[in-house]
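Here is one chain, start to finish.
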Amino acid sequence: MEFGIFNLMGAREPEKTAAQVFAEVAEQTRLADELGYSIAWFAEHHFSNYCLCASPLMMVAHCASITQKIRLGTAVVVLPLYNPARLAAEVATADALSNGRLMLGIGAGYQPYEFDRFGVDLKQNLEMTEEAGRMQRYLVALAENERLRPFLLGVAAAVVGLIAAVTVQIVKTSVVDVYTAAMAIASFGILLRFHAKLTVLYVVLGCGAIGALLQVTGAVVAGVTVYLLAARAMRVRELDVLTRVVPRSRRSR
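Its structure:
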């Protein structure tokens, strides 16, 4: 059996400040960590003394610095009140600050006055939650795939270059011609994927010339070149990805 604590952070005593409420919750969480509790949850509410915490992710980040093992959870992040792309970035930040101890709890929300004051239609909360949930999963999967993509492109380019070099030895064809054709194919794919306008020119000329001089060794050089170009293109592309994944109707929230 595992034990945890839930922190609502209500303000029931007029003489107690918000700073004192948050400090007490942080101390309770630190003590729970020392006692071996498994998790501490933090609520989210707005515009009332029912709960003073407007951002459970901020409490996670704060308590992460004073605890060692206890998992830290949001109970819950009200998805319709957030910009999905911004939320994904904040979740990733909290997870990094807690060294992977974040437990992300999400919900649709239910308080009419909270939605009214944020200018969000409560009648659409379930639809917006489902939409935002899909975006979170997509962004996480995208981040995981993009970490591997430059490496895989580099390996693919090196393999293409190696095959080209072996072909040269077999049929005695011009090294420059084979490398130019092979790298043109590889770099054209990168151009379409990452919109790097000069990738074809750099890869074809650079790898073709180096391959002509170094033959098989040029395949490795080609792979490294494509890897670096792809990584650079993706850094430019990150903002474009987030812009496209968030519908225009939600970008101002």
